[in-house]
Amino acid sequence: MIVNEPRYDLRQEKNGTWTVLDVITRLPAASDGRDLTGLDRDDAKDIMDALNKDHIAGRKSPLV
Predict the structure, then answer these.
(1) Number of C-alpha atoms within 13 angstroms, CB side, residue 40?
(2) Which residues are CB-contacts of 10 (< 8 A; sequence separation ≥ 6)?
(3) pLDDT value at position 36?
(4) What is the pLDDT along the chain (64 residues), one digit of tens a residue?
(5) In 3-state terms, the chain is what percent helix, strand and coil (to 5)?
(6) pTM of the predicted model, to two decimals?
(7) Which run of H or E residues covers position 48?
């Protein structure tokens, strides 16, 4: 796995909400055992950016 590549991406669902997607597993990322789904775009993007920043820095994110 290349650590300097983003691990998380966004996917818009059919109902218009957004999911933070783990690109390695192709499953929704999870925080405190809850999938990061049903989000508005701004919140999903903020979470994705924070997760990718921690991933690229080699830190375990407190969000997952």
Answers:
(1) 2
(2) 18, 19, 20, 21, 41, 44, 45, 48
(3) 97
(4) 556 889 999 999 999 999 999 999 999 999 888 999 999 999 999 999 999 999 999 888 877 7
(5) 25, 25, 50
(6) 0.87
(7) helix 41-56
pLDDT of residue 4: 82
Burial (Cβ within 10 Å: 0-12, 13-18, ≥19) of residue 54: middle
**CB neighbours (10 Å) of residue 44?**
24
Q: Which residue has the tokens 């919140």?
A: 43
Residues 6+ apart with CB under 8 A from 52: 6, 7, 8
Residues forming beta bridges with residue 8, ordered by sequence position: 22
